[in-house]
Amino acid sequence: MREAVAILTGGGPAPGMNSVIGSVAKTFLQNGYRVIGLHEGYTGLFTENPRTVDLDYMLADDIFNRGGSYLKMSRFKPTDENFKKDFNIDFFVKNNVKLLVTIGGDDTASTANRVAKFLRDRDYHIANIHVPKTIDNDLPLPVGSPTFGYESAKDQGAAIGRTLYVDARTSENWFIVAAMGRSAGHLAFGIGTACHYPMIVIPEMFNKTEITVDKIVALVVSSIVKRKLMNMDYGAAIISEGVFHNLSQEEIAKAGVQFTYDAHGHPELGKISKAHVFNALIEKKLLELGIKPRVRPVEIGYEVRCQTPVAFDLVYCSLLGMGVYKLYREGATGCMVYVNPAGEVSPLYLKDLQDPETGKIPPRLVDVNSNEVQSVIRHILNFITPDDYDRAKAYLPNPEEYDFYRILNWKRPKH
Known about the structure:
- The structure is a single chain.
- This protein is an alpha/beta fold.
- The chain folds into two domains: about 5-150 and about 310-355, Rossmann fold (3-Layer(aba) Sandwich), CATH 3.40.50; about 150-305 and about 385-410, Rossmann fold (3-Layer(aba) Sandwich).
- Helix content is about 40%, strand content about 15%.
- The longest helix is centred in the middle third of the chain and has 22 residues, at about 150-170.
- The protein is elongated.
C-alpha cells in the first residue's frame, strides 16, 4: 500500500488555505504518495466514519488559487475523554498514513502534537507538520514574516476601508470601524494605516495604562474634535476587536456586551457587532458633549476571510506547501513549517515557542514603539494636543482629558 499523507484544516478560514492544500497535494502526489483530505478538522479523527476525500492532481490544481477552504473546517477541540473513547486509530493504520499535515492557528498546532503523542504511545509513529495561518498575524514567527492570509485580508480590508473613507468625506460622516484581531491589532493597524484613518485603536496602545471603555471612546472623540478644528467634519476610526480581550469583566458589562465562548475558551467575538457597540458608546458621549453625532458603524471581519488570495499569499502558501514535503523528507516532526523572506525553509518547533508554564503559544503583538507605528501615530493620526486646548474648549469642557498622550499615559515625543 502506498504511504499516505492526511491533511486537515482547523479554526476559521484565511486566504491561502486552498493554496497550501493544493501545493501540499501536488508536491506529494508527484512523489508517489496518496493524499487524503479530512473534512471538519479534528472531528474526522474522533468518529468511526470520517468524511474524507482523495485529493488527486487535477483537484489540487483546480482549488489552489481559490478563496475559502475546500476541506471543511471545524473548531472542534478533543478532550482527554475523546482521546480515550473516540480516537479512530484505524484511519491511520488502514490508510497507511505516515504524515498528518494540519493547517490552522496555535490551537490546531497544539492538538496535532497531542495526536502524534497519542499514536506514539500506541507504537504507531507518524510525523506531524503544521502550517501556521491566521489573518490576525499574531503567531510568533520571526520578524518580517507574516502569517499566511494576513496580507490578503489586509488588502481586502483596505479596499473596504478606502471606500468608507470616500463616503465619509462625501457625506461628512464619521465611520466607526471594527476589525478582526482576537489578541493583537495587526489587521486594524494595517488597514487604518493603508487608508490614512485619523484614529486607530489597538490593545497594544494601552501598554502604560489600564484599558477601559471610557479611554477608547475618548481617543475617538479626540480625533473627531481635532478634525473639527481642522475644518474637516468627517473621518473614520478603526478599532481592533482585541480590545475586548483586555477589558475587565466590569468594563465589558459597562459596554453592555455578553459573550459566549468557543471550545478553546475564547470569547466568540464574531457573534456580536463590535462596531455597533463602540458606535453607540461614542454617539452617547458626543451627545453629552453637545456635539451633533454623525457616526455610522461598520464591521470588517468575515468579509476578508475567504477572499481570493493576493499574489503575495499565492506565492507564500505555495512555498509553505512545498516546504512541508522538504521538512518531512528531512525527518522533521512536531513543528511548524517556516519560509523566510528569502524563500528558505526551516522548522519552527512548538516547544520553543510555547510558554513553559501554560504550554500556550504567546501571541505576537504589534510593537507600538517601532518606528513604523510611531511614525503613523505622529504623522497620520489626528488628535488633541496641548496646542489645541484653547480652541478645543468650544467643544470639550476639559480638553486635556482628550489628549492622546495623556489618555495612554505615554511620554510626549519631542518634535
